[in-house]
Amino acid sequence: MDSEDRFSIASPERCRSRGVLRDAGGVVTAVIAAVLVAAMAAGVAVAQPVDPLARFHRQRVDWHPCEDPALVAEHADCAGIAVPLDYSRPDGPDITIAISRIRARDTAHRRGVLLTNSGGPGTPGLDAFDLVGDVLRPDVLSRYDLIGFDPRGVARSGRHQRCGWPVATPIRSAGVGLPAFVTETALQGQLAAQCLVGDRDWMRQLSTRNTARDMDVIRAALHEDRLSYYGLSYGTYLGAVYAQMFPGRSDRMVLDSAIDPRRYWLGLQQDWGPAVETAFDDWAGWVAARDGQYHLGASAGEVRRGVEALIDRAALSPIVVEGFGFDDHLLPTVPWTMLRDARLNAALAASMRALADAAAGRAPQVPPELHKLIEDDEHDENSVMVQIWCADAPMPADPAWYWNAIQAARPTQPIFAALANNIQPCAFWPPPAEPPTVVDNAVPALILQATGDNRTPYPGAVALHHQMSGSRLITLTDTRIHMVLRPGLSTCILDTTNRYFRDGAFPTGDRTCRPTTLLE
């Protein structure tokens, strides 16, 4: 069990659990007790356990009014929590983690603190109410101090956040052929170099293990014995790592749309391929049934062939929409982005129609969702996300490894193999400061998962359920969506989660839920 033992002296209870104090007749225990009594009688000082993080655990938290309008509206307080930059050097430099708090209103039934993480990695999280305020019922929220926080390296808890990239994100397709892959490899190397010209030591400390340690410092600084937690997507990995590292300090945990820790990050990326191809076929059937509206094909096969042809066309010359060029590296990211949620079927169909019209020289009607993707690609930069990936887990350094993986997957993943197996900046990154966390515990947790999730595919939730043997898997069937704790989606999911957070009502076994509202 990874319980951060290297930061504390083992207690007799810990030693006993490891078989160190094997004491059939109490003889060893009696001898130790006699020695301690004699030492104290003689005036000899007995060493007490030393907490290297004491100054962080016992720090004073100075609350002040928040500045964000949404937090002001919720009467939230904000503060900064000092944590070590490098936990192996607790006397070294500090950094500050920005947190917020909405106080529990039902003080008579107050349970404690509820921390949240909305995924990413790299997503700001100071506004926790925005994540759970519409899914946890008022009588549940009123029992917790709701704690939001920006993880280390993110937003108000960050520095060196942007690397000056020429593209928004490294999540791109490697392209149609080998020349495109070579070009993409050079670009991904450039992205890494533009980050690494900064403070490498800082970036190597942006790991999930350190963020989990930061969570435990927050817990201690708030004078709480344990913390409850809701994590979404990447937040499920963070929650699983916390439960592994601090197994006695987790209270009620809910992990929504889960990642298999053994496949984070490269394996998860590869798992996108088959899952998103399946989602594409589902969408293609939906579009074919509406060919009179979208004119993308009268059968699922025809729709697929049309999109594949559009990608081949983009490889010859970018398809320009609103002045932005979609080449074979970017065009596959349009369906990849929107297939995560069946409610975006129409938006994706309208987007593909616009791209097809632009490719044919016709003026496209650009839907808001495609316009938003263009704006994000022109102005955003997800380098913080990559800095966290690369601090967590190594990736193969040989470009040939990725090319071979792409080629092996293309026959069954004609659209997404080159995206799901593409080389990433982490191939050019220094190795992580620590190995990834092996999750193997019996900490209770609710794992919520949709069978049609293609961003964190369902087998990952099954795997995490096995690794956290005390968990319960709550499955939402027949639904293509990422994030299942949503208003109106499934009464079964909402009731199960709210009862758990409110009363600790933990299901006696796994549970299958159906959507209350079918997604189309």
UniProtKB/TrEMBL annotation:
The answer to whether the entry has keyword Cell wall biogenesis/degradation is: no
Its keywords, alphabetically, are: Hydrolase, Membrane, Signal, Transmembrane, Transmembrane helix
**InterPro entries (alphabetical):** AB_hydrolase_1, AB_hydrolase_fold, Pept_S33_TAP-like_C, Serine_prot/Carboxylest_S33
Ranges of residues in domain Peptidase S33 tripeptidyl aminopeptidase-like C-terminal: 419-513
Where are its TM segments located? 24-47
Q: MF terms per GO, please?
A: hydrolase activity
Where does the source fall among the domains of life?
Bacteria
Gene3D superfamilies reported in the protein's UniProt record: alpha/beta hydrolase
Q: Where is the AB hydrolase-1 domain?
A: 114-304
What's the family?
A: Belongs to the peptidase S33 family.
Instruction: Name it.
Output: Alpha/beta fold hydrolase
Q: Which organism is it from?
A: Nocardia jiangxiensis
